[in-house]
Amino acid sequence: MIFHVFAKERGIRKGEFVADLFDAEICLTQVVADILQHLLRDPLVGGLARVLLADSSHQQSCDKRTDAFADYQNKLLEYRQSIGQ
């Protein structure tokens, strides 16, 4: 539906072929941007996007903590081996 509005604004009639692939790509990019803008205005979708972003950030933090703890354990083992324990 958004594409039809976009095409109408650009003067593209139904069934008309967009000859230039670059123009078609620009149109598609604009349509996707319009859809995303429309979706993000919806409070439910915007809230879901923030939750997913927060979850991703939390997961990255957990991964970094796990990596740091593994590095610590490896360094501790190296130290203990170097002093003969």
Tell me, rounded to a whole number, the average pLDDT. Answer: 75
Structural class: mainly alpha
Report the β-strand fraction as a percent range: under 5%
Task: Give the N-to-C terminal Cα separation.
Answer: 71 Å
Structural Rg: 26 Å
- Total strands: the figure is 0
How many strands, what sense, and barrel or not for the largest sheet? Answer: none
Structure annotation, total helices: 3
Which series of helices and strands comes N to C?
HHH
- Percentage of helical residues? over 70%
Principal-axis shape equals elongated
Point out poorly predicted stretches.
none
Give your account of this protein's structure.
The protein has 85 residues and is mostly helical. The chain is 82% helix and 0% strand. It is elongated. The termini are far apart. 0% of the residues are buried. The model has no long low-confidence stretch (mean pLDDT 75).
